[in-house]
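Why does residue order matter? Because the sequence determines the fold. Keep that principle in mind as you read this record.
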Amino acid sequence: MIVRHLSLTDFRNYASAEVALEPGPNLFVGRNGQGKTNLVESIGYLSSLGSHRVSSDQALIRAGAESAVVRARLAHDGRELLVELQLNRSAPNRAQVNRAAVKPRELPRYCSSVLFAPEDLALVRGEPSTRRRFVDGLLGIRSPRLLGVFADYDRVLKQRNALLKSARASGLKEGRLSTLEVWNDRLVELGTEIMAERIAVVAALGPRVVEAYQAVAGVDQQPALAPVLSVFSEHPDADDEESTHGDTGERTRAELEQAFRSALERVARAERERGITLCGPHRDDVLFTLNGLPAKGYASHGESWSFALSLKLACAELIRTDSATGDPVVILDDVFAELDQGRRGRLADAVKGYEQVLITAAVYDDVPEELTAHTVRIQAGTIVEQAESEHADV
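Structure:
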């Protein structure tokens, strides 16, 4: 899949923008704060319904405007689609595909992208929630149906937590927990599906991460990843440091369901005392290792960068294999400035085979020459130049 044309209205710092894009590499270049990332962020939003920089849609709407519009003309296998999304301050968001109204959550079916940005270093060094969002985001792209499963699980979790908090406030009267079993059944049903899907996608990523890490870093440091499931923890109610042991065994759905039910029984008293659900997919993690040691805490800065890059490249390869829309758009947002010369060249080699690659950079010379064929200069939220090539420093 490629984006042939991008149109923005009142998105971030753009009152209006029209950008023609080409197959292969496209470089957006300009000083920091000019709006380069805003352009690629809009494409990332169409494929994920989220921003890699902020958690609220409101920040995406230009100051003083009531709505923002993103339009993208997509092409795949000889077919073109016009995808449109309107983000509203005080009304539900709206979406269209070829001028026909669709639900916004359906947009990822038509547009897929994989974005890597400096913030992704948190995949290796950050909290478990960051890794959960990463895995679930990939699952949502591979199987949009799961977006509904995640939403249902979050809703049941909130209801169950509300019940536990109410019981704690009322002195833990058993009568206040009479409906807990109903919520338990639904939580286990949805949670088992989420755990099974996460295990499967982590297993699928594993060999691709190995290949991508060697391609980017130029060495084999035995990168590996394994799920960490709270339902198999001896102390799932403990708020301790992240586990240094992943779950590498094969688990059937029946085993996952039974483990979830058993874990809920083990932590029942602690849950009543604390008023919160203490085990389940919302407390799981993924363990990343290099040479058998946890990457978090042991990997150097360069190794952490290589691991994070490898995870995103593995995602792109997995989507390329599975998606009906072909290659995802690969987005590298302000990445090359953080890499040494060797890693820059190896990353360029790793991505140049994708149908379309979007790159942002503050300095033109940071980007390997083979990725500069189509360059767009940005200044203060304005497209000031689009050229086939450019050789001046910015």
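The longest strand covers residues 2-11.
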